[in-house]
Amino acid sequence: MLHIVATPIGNLGDISRRAIEVLAGADIVAAEDTRRCRALLTHLGLSRTVLAYHDHSDEHRERELIAELQRGRSVALVADAGTPLVSDPGFRLVRAARIAGIEVVCVPGPCAAIAALSIAGLPSDRFVFEGFLPAREAARRARLELLVDETRTLIFYESPRRVCGLLEDLRAVFGGERTAVVARELTKLHETVLSGSIDALLERVLADAEQQLGEIVVLVHGAAASLDAATVNSEKLLRVLLARLPLSEAVDCAVEISGLARNGLYRQALSLRDAGAAD
Ligand code: SAM
Fold it and tell me: How many C-beta atoms lie closer than 10 Å to residue 91's C-beta?
């Protein structure tokens, strides 16, 4: 069995009882940074075989771990911190394990993106995790341009060295008025969470060198929906579209035009069709 084990993002007290049990029972613990992994295991009073695993550099190690799993040995994959596979190695190993018919089991726990979202005070019903943007400015801005109309809350990971650069790019592309949050050193001694307009955050972070240190998640409020949902007459919209298009295309167009939820529009379209609205 391959276990994917989440570990703390700062506060070691956040390790789950089940994570400890699984690590204690694993024949092999796979980790990107074996030194950090051993430090965690030592903290937990455990001594296990630790092997280095990176997604891209080491196909040989991937085959070795799959072979061990096929031999019936148990492997636990951990990240340096947080949930493996979330901006961390593991995807290729999990995919290979699934292809080989090996059971893959999660041991859920801390994740910086979700921790930040849970305290940011930004809409959390729908969100987009963008991970790290490209390091080069032109590529970063190009990526942000693609997100300018995104209405869901955006979540980015960023290195402290580039946090001012990211805020500058956000201001250039999204405008300085948009609300954002800089969540820093979560669960650690110097945790801070700053919230405000991108303009205000940039000013604050530039003025305080401490805000340019540590581990950082940046969240941005989504763009305002192009139409205010309350002003959309969805019945009229659907009647016009159903008169010209098959039902599912009409619903797709209505979703795109109005920004309203597909489920509701689909149900409404079905009842309009059944009532003969498209005739
Ligand atoms: N797999 C991890 C997870 O589940 O969150 C993320 C790993 S990624 C390589 C590391 C990035 O996560 C950092 O650069 C930072 O953006 C974010 N991060 C990790 N720990 C954090 C913390 N305690 N506070 C704020 N951000 C954190």
Answer: 12
